[in-house]
Amino acid sequence: MVMYLLMAVAYVLGGALVGAGIYLSRQGDFPSWWERWMLWPSVEVTPRVVHSQGWACLALGASVLALGFTPVVPEVVGGALVLAAIVGYLVGVGLFGFSAYLSRRQTN
């Protein structure tokens, strides 16, 4: 019972992250209803920063979805999904850090 609840949470959270990632990578700006504190690590929000954060969100969402599918697939496929999830997580964190760097760097 608990496993199915955790799988459902992973599907909802992963789907929301993938949806937000698609939205941000297609748009050039954050939604207007987002408050300034929600954009915390970003100082200067440019379309490139938004696209980078969208791709980071997409990678993290795919990582969560991959982990959510591991209990229902064979062991070999589950192992591959865990490795893909780890890679997706590292890519997402790297892209998020890169977007924070882009928003804070000095331009001449």
Can you offer a commentary on this structure?
By secondary structure, this protein is mainly alpha-helical. The chain has one domain. Helices cover 72% and strands 0% of the residues. The protein has three helices and no strands. It has helices at 2-26, 47-69, 75-104. Helix 1 runs antiparallel to helix 2 (47-69) and helix 2 packs antiparallel against helix 3 (75-104).
Question: Which helices and strands, and how do they pair?
Answer:
Blueprint: H1 2-26, H2 47-69, H3 75-104
Helix pairs in contact: 1-2, 2-3
Low-confidence stretches: none
- Per DSSP E runs of 2 or more residues, the count of β-strands stands at 0
Tell me the distance between the termini: 57 Å
Report the total helices.
3
Can you give the mean pLDDT? 90
Task: Quickly list its features.
single chain, 108 residues, elongated
Summarize the structure.
It contains 3 helices and no strands.
